[in-house]
## 1
Amino acid sequence: LVERMRGYGETIFAEMSRLAAETGSINLGQGFPDTDGPRSLLDAAAEHIRAGVNQYPPGPGRAELRTAVAEDRAARYGLSYDPDGEVYITVGATAGIAASVLALAGPGDEVVLFEPMYDSYAAVISLAGAVRRPVPLRPGADGRFTFDPGELRAAVGPRTRLIIVNTPHNPTGTVLTRAELETVAALCREHDLVAITDEVYEHLVYDGAEHVPLAALPGMRDRTVSVSSVGKTFSVTAWKTGWVTGPRPLVRAVQTVNQFLTFSANGALQLAIAEAIRGEQDWIRAQRDALQAKRDRLSAGLADAGFGVLRPQGTYFVMADVRPLGYTDGVQLARALPVEAGVACVPAQVLYDDVDEGRHLVRFAYCKRDEVLDEAVRRLTGAF
Ligand code: PMP
Ligand code: GLN
């Protein structure tokens, strides 16, 4: 293994899912739903495969999906992208993020991002030979995680090239407000930075919270590469289909890299997804409402079981503080829980450079059937 990838073992999501399987635990670790996406989407994919859509699609993706993505971003956020050159389909958000970072940051460049950070960011920054500058998100008295603008400003220096912004944020569930994003945007404009956004949970926001794409802020469209994907929106995490939208020169840079990583993504799925983006908006809203109720259901159960619950505004994750249970280390609890209680979660600590910031935090996924959540709570209650 090359030097720059030393220290990266198995991902925490794979490790905890394996532990969950070995122990027969309810897996509230890795984030994936236990019900399928809309029937029309599944049927359409099967039909397109049967109808012979089985060879390479164009590298940038099927025009049908590029157009649907562009129309959706225009209708939803007032952001205008040319499907031909400003929208690019990738193998999930994971490939979109990797290609974007590899295209835009090189050896010695610094990348500012918030921690806890989704695990692939750190790894691809390392692959690029770049250096990460994490800024902590910390919970306030209301349990909502946010950043200190002074700490963010201090992280930006002469070598900063990129900033990565994930909202709604995994694992904290924070939905950054327009005002918080304006702080980020002001720094980007002032220091001439490019932003990469990860918006895979864009539809999963609760209590009337609004997802604001950084690209929609003044002066940001032409310096932002926005990444999203279909896995969370339509409960098809295995489909690994995502997209990058941005100004032509940045998308061209991403394409230059990605054509050698994956070349193209699955064509039949792209056609089915294009149809669902147009036809299944009601399903997306119903799913959001269902997940909001599941958030409340699991949060209440975790609180009853003795965790300190940090209420999320988006995603399908909830962070929990293990200290009220008498633990100081979330890794210790996350390793013990499948064995002792038959429930798996993810220790958030591994998503921080500054381990002390997240030592006591674990993440639970609530994108599961109610009876599964209830059984998990039953197992957790009285386990300590
Ligand atoms: N970013 C975040 C914040 C995620 O939680 C995930 C996991 N779905 C991804 C990116 C990867 O998305 P995909 O499965 O589309 O590659
Ligand atoms: N995005 C999912 C999560 O945060 C996991 C994806 C993965 O396993 N790499 O749980």
## 2
Amino acid sequence: GYRSRAAYKLKEIDEEMQLIRPGQLVVDLGAAPGAWSQYVRRKFAGAGAAAGELDGTIIALDLLDFEPIEGVTFIQGDFREDSVLERLKEAVGGRPVDVVVSDMAPNLSGIEVSDAARIAHLVELAVEFAQAHLKPEGALVCKVFHGSGYSQLVELFKRTFRMVKAIKPKASRDRSAETFLVGRGLKRVG
Ligand code: SAM
């Protein structure tokens, strides 16, 4: 089993888009309690990996600590802080990243404009990180919410990636406004 049902959302997205493969470097943003990292880890522990070894690298980041997952590098901190971003960059160590996944969600206030701004800010930072670190054919998966600000985030993805798709996994409750944007293939900055 997984630590959270959230794993099934990434599983559905991955099964549709074929994003996660052994040998990759994957960055998991907003990773606690660790279900997405567990899902990626299982894919890395398959055929090509020697017993007990992982064929692939996972770097996870969250505000909150969680029970360690063997082979997953964890950075605790706020992704919006420069010092935390620096630690993440150090862990990446200049290697090109295959996939960035972000399930980060801010604490919502219920005030639509400020919530939309908080969500947009996290997505914008994830897109910036992806632009700086992804391989040219790499992919970014980001949780977003329908409602105010959604179409601007789709536009941001379309400016950044050659292929953009919005996926609402069945494992996301119907009533929840969450959707996942998948961007693949960085557009060249002109
Ligand atoms: N994908 C995770 C899993 O499968 O276990 C679940 C992630 S949970 C829905 C969202 C996470 O985003 C929370 O653990 C929260 O602490 C984290 N988060 C929200 N804002 C953040 C920020 N600014 N920096 C880092 N993590 C953040």
## 3
Amino acid sequence: MNIAVIGTGYVGLVSGVCFAELGNRVICVDKDTRKIDILNSGGIPIYEPGLKELSEANRAADRLAFTSDLPGAVRQSDIIILAVGTPPLPNGEANLSYIEEAALEIAEAMNGYKIIVVKSTVPVGTNERLSDLIRRRTKHLFDSVSLPEFLREGSAIKDSLQPDRIIIGVDSPLAADTMVELHKPLTEQIVVTDIRSAEMIKYASNAFLATKISFINEIANICEKVGADVTQVAEGMGYDKRIGPAYLKAGIGYGGSCFPKDTRALIQIAGHVDYDFKLLRSVVEVNQGQRFNVIRKLETIFGGELQGRTVAVWGLAFKPNTDDVRDSPALEIIQFLVENGVKVKAHDPVAMGNFQALFGKEGVEWCNDALETAQGADALCLLTEWEEFADVDLKQLQSVLNRPILIDGRNVFEEEDLLGTNFVYYSVGRPSLNQGVKEQLPALPFVQNL
Ligand code: UDX
């Protein structure tokens, strides 16, 4: 099939490359000529393991091309996939101006029947609104499809080529057949549904996963008080097939370009139809508080006095294997520390440039590796679970720190890693690993079932 993908951000680029890998002829379009130049010279403007190699192989096989010429790409394609950004507006709603602009450009370029697919995450009803816009600008026939995307940064290629399911929202049998045909090589689990339900599936899925994370983070917070271990609790829960083990890792809360934006957007969507999504509002609130638990632990250790301390931070990306820092907990944590007179030293294997672009270069000492960051610090906070950090020898780490204080925001280290060290170690929801805390646990009141 001949496919045009509009937008070469994460979703667009990965989808374009993967559709080419399936044997289709794909042309990826972006207004940003700088990005197109990078792509045409064999580079990749984002960090995603394996993407560069796959893109190169498909370019060499003449199945993949990059251009800024949207009308040309539309004319030569049967399927047009919209994958432009829908970033949040200050009130949490999705900004649809880019997608509307792209839809109008597509309408004006059309030269025959097309299937117009929306892969960007958009509020329920947006596909219909875009169809109306296009219909007013063209005499040609077209069908609309909602094709929500579920890929995760860092494992985007695997998620695209081996998805758990494909959701196709459509109101035309012809478009439904074409889309099923296109995705058949990927999975048998193809759900064909109406357009509004497909739009909702995306928000509901992300909101549910975010809920799992906030749930386990609250359980972790309780574990810290009652002397239970959240990793054991999550494992025990996860064996129940109705619960499942995924997205039950306690930490410093979710970040990234999807969960924070989509949870807030779904609260807004519900609000527009006079529904107060109380549960999801709590999920967002818990997530916001969770990142500050790192600070609370530092304050406890330093007797409330952060001013003048040196704190090392390992990890700036919102999760490992990505250079993405959008809504990364590290942003707010570091900002708080700097504003409270803490000297911050920080390092991330790949996300330092993006972090500096958002945060600025001032106020933080940027370091080249894990040990250099820790050198002379009064405490170390691990915020992203990069392998590079997990591999550090803790005895060596202890020898370079000014004080052996380690706040592990991602539960990277285990009891055996700490053997032979004197770390004051705080993780998330595992109080028994905190130095000396086992003995201090309070006796719990006997609570009768009421
Ligand atoms: C997410 C969805 O998984 C994907 O389906 C959707 O299309 C886009 O949003 P992504 O943002 O790339 O993908 O990352 P993901 O791996 O889902 O992690 C999101 C955040 O949750 C990260 O900050 C991660 O650290 C955190 N997380 C995840 C936890 O804190 N605990 C977990 O158990 C899982």
